[in-house]
Amino acid sequence: MNVKSKNSILNNKLNFILLITLLVFLFIPLFVLKFKIIPKTKLNGIADVKPYKKLTYENLYSNDFQKSFDNYFMRANALWGYLVKINNELSYRLFNQITFSYGPEAIVGKDGSLIQPMYFNSFNRQFTPDDFLLIKKANKLKKLENLLEKKGVKLLVVVNPNNTAMYSRNIPNKFKDPTRFQRENSYEIMKRYIEKLNIPFVDNYEYLMKMKNKVDFKFFEPTGSHLNEVGSCLGTNNLLNTIKEAFPKKDINNFPCFPVKEIYPPKSEDTDLLNVSNLLFPNRLLHPGHYVPEAKKLYNEAPLKLLFVGTSFNFAVQEHLQKRNIAKSKLYFYYKSIRTDDGVFHILDKRKINWQNDVFKNDVIILESNYSGLGGVGYSFLTDAIIKLKKDLFKTEKELKTWQNDIKKKIIKQSKKNNVNTILESEFNPFENKQ
Questions:
Q1: Domain ends where: 108, 137, 170?
Q2: What's the pLDDT tens digit per position in 10-46?
Q3: Distances (CA, A) of 434 to 184, 186, 233, 401, 429
Q4: pLDDT tens across 260-276, in order?
Q5: Spatial separation of the C-alpha atoms in residues 432 and 183, rounded to whole Å
Q6: Which of 40, 210, 282, 291 is least enclosed by beta carbons within 10 angstroms?
Q7: Neighbours of 172 (CB within 10 A)
Q8: Which uninterrupted H or E stretch holds 368?
Q9: CA torsion angle for 168, 314, 154, 374 (degrees, to 10)?
Q10: How many Å apart are CA 233 and CA 292, to the nearest integer?
Q11: Is the pTM of this model over 0.85?
């Protein structure tokens, strides 16, 4: 047998092996998908699988059908979840990173704790809005404060820290821009304008930065993205101290945050970053969580009624207040949905807001922002509330319509330049990771 014949036979064998391998890799997922012999494992932070599109000539030609089927075939298959977790586990064990893919939900810090990369733009002082936009925002806050004052409602602006801002030493150097200190961020600029206009301001970032040196643990658990129970307890009491000054006749008491107790495993709210990391063996990263003394009911009837407009950092604040019956509260979560103080979410239909009862009958309206997005504090609630309050100032329908037409003209003119709210909120959007 000559060399050419031997090579031909070898190539045929290799082609046969390759074909069999291909069929196995294709057959096993199809078999699993069809007969569901392997239970699916849940992946956190990933959208549920959508059914693939109905085949038509148009979507076949445009490749939409192929894309939708490919996505369905991959995600509906029970093997996919296990493969993702195996991939992430290997990535973590071999390279100390959560995933090989771009745009991870979490990265590993220098001390082994998990960090959210969505805060890195702000940390590196990128995408900071122009000063004139922040001045406009500060002036709007002052205008809203003055209008609310006429209704006997107090306005508070609150800023809460994130893990990146508080514990920046833990960020791997490759994520740090060495030129960042040559620029200001929106927190520094906005705080200056807020203080200049004498707008009531609770700076929990500054407060907790001072407090962190008094404890031997962090105010963020290694597997969580929000302040732990001790950090949120201190921040809530700091908020109450400011409210007490505004309502000296109300009986408002603080509550203890110490002594701290350690609990293992930590509560679910302190493992949210670990959950979205989708590791095969996540329990290896768990540490005891830090918690405050058991909450005791302080009042038979809550002395305060509060409306929060802001981020998920308000969840813990609501829970502290609700457990001790200090306040009845609602949260307009990013001004997109409503969270009551018992943790239940509802859709927020802005057209159906009863402004008189739901908004203007609160003792305090708290516009809260994360340290990384103070330029966007209040969202479009700020404008909507000012418009509703302004309407009450007009005596006749004609005056109101004239003013409304002027507002419309200004909005059209502004939109041609660029929508101010969109620009301000682009600095930090938790629903859109710019990394």
A1: 108
A2: 556 666 666 666 555 555 555 555 555 566 677 886 6
A3: 19, 17, 31, 41, 9
A4: 999 999 999 999 999 99
A5: 23
A6: 210
A7: 13
A8: strand 364-370
A9: 30
A10: 8
A11: no
